Amino acid sequence: TANPDTATDAYDLVIVSNRLPVDRVVDESGEASWRPSPGGLVAALEPMMRSQDGIWIGWAGVADEEIEPFEAGDINIRPVMLTEQDLQEYYEGFSNDTLWPLYHDVIAQPSYHREWWETYVKVNRRFADAAAEVAAQGAVVWVHDYQLQLVPAMLREVRPDLVIGFFNHIPFPPYGIYSQLPWRRQIIDGLLGADVIGFQRVADAGNFSRAVRRLKGYETRGPIIEVPIDTDDPASGSHRHVTTDRRGGLVRTVLARAFPISIDADQYQDLARRPEIQARAREIRQELGNPQTVMLGVDRLDYTKGIGHRLKAFGELLAEGRLNAEEVTLVQVASPSRERVETYRQLRDEIELTVGRINGDYGSLGHTAVAYLHHGYPREEMVALYLAADVMLVTALRDGMNLVAKEYVATRIDEDGVLVLSEFTGASDELRQALLINPHDIEGLKETILQAVAMPKRDRTRRMRALRRKVLTNDVARWSASFLDALTRSAHGDHPLQNP
Ligand code: G6P
């Protein structure tokens, strides 16, 4: 139901992200429909948008389609068009083949191409223009993630009246890595257009501040960054929280701090209580041949997730006879992602080769060692899988947060199940009672997997209870409220320094 008025309305809250909460899908007969889009960002923001009258600006997931503003389940949506070339150079290229590997500690080699950068600038401008067009006077605009790092400054330039927030959903790398980027100064300038810049971990915020000091020479005081004001700039008079620095020069202050994201924990609990979902969980175990232990991995098929390390550890445990495929099954859900990017194609081939080898060597007609699923599933099925899994394996080599770990914990209303969690995820800062692992240490990972399989019920409950307290208290509503609170206070010239 397209609403032609939407574009001319002015909104007090504008969300800007590369991907919309819904993806346009066109079937063979040319019939178009919408389905929920993948990734943690959407899962985190959707509940907040349902409860507020804002607008969401983003890309609909298909190239070359001009789509009018519309409403999707209570959410006002204003699509931004990407051409096939934008898709290749801005999305697949600069976002996912330059920034993504760079920001994830160069697990894969980033590609640096000047044409990709130019398209990234051009597309960021398009998003900024779209936001400038729909934002009411003094509105709050919240920009998301690495695809749109230039938007805050572009927006401030044309609309200095706006309160601008930016949240980085992925890690921000240490300076020694970040400094590889040929456009490292432009990105910093882009981000510093915001009033508040949010990161997942305290370490990410620290990495960012250090990059600001090294590349721009600006002063920082804890989470506050002092950005000198160019008094020749006509917009300079409209800046908020202007103060003087130690040398008496005019500066505006920007807050850069950790706001660890979370999930709608109640929604997962509610699903876990449903009898039909519990029945489905039992059915899943049956379909797997009723193994004593079900282990589970759930990831977008991405090289940051450490799926290969997980399979290596599992394969070795089977080879050494320390686990037996008659008794233990590993379910690996690997949802398709960024399939036209070469590194992702190679990863898929490697993972599927490894799964085939393990199953060929250790499986039998009745028991597959690895039940591998290259699909995305609806939330109901995911909750049934979480309920069916005795051990959840999160072995990411680098991950901004990892919401799967939190989903597993929220789902386990029975206070059972063991979470094995990589210390290279943002989630490991909070989820200290998980079995924390270094995925590069295959021997250590193997020992921990065995520990998880053998853990007595009493210990499982004790750990899961503590984990659940964390996830149920720090849910996504609290996350968005605390970020928006920091933004609103910043509009009044006040920067909250501590986590509320
Ligand atoms: C991560 C990123 C998101 C992204 C999602 C899915 O969660 O932080 O920005 O939307 O992955 O990736 P995709 O490239 O399909 O949007």
Automatic annotation (TrEMBL):
Its EC number is 2.4.1.15. It is an enzyme of class 2 (transferase). Homotetramer. It comes from Leifsonia williamsii. It comes from the Bacteria. This is Trehalose-6-phosphate synthase. Belongs to the glycosyltransferase 20 family. The keyword Lipid biosynthesis does not apply. It catalyses: D-glucose 6-phosphate + UDP-alpha-D-glucose = alpha,alpha-trehalose 6-phosphate + UDP + H(+). Pathway: Glycan biosynthesis; trehalose biosynthesis. Probably involved in the osmoprotection via the biosynthesis of trehalose. Catalyzes the transfer of glucose from UDP-alpha-D-glucose (UDP-Glc) to D-glucose 6-phosphate (Glc-6-P) to form trehalose-6-phosphate. Acts with retention of the anomeric configuration of the UDP-sugar donor. The gene is otsA. One of its GO terms (molecular function) is alpha,alpha-trehalose-phosphate synthase (UDP-forming) activity. The keyword Magnesium does not apply. InterPro entries: Glyco_trans_20, Trehalose_OtsA. Keywords: Glycosyltransferase, Transferase.
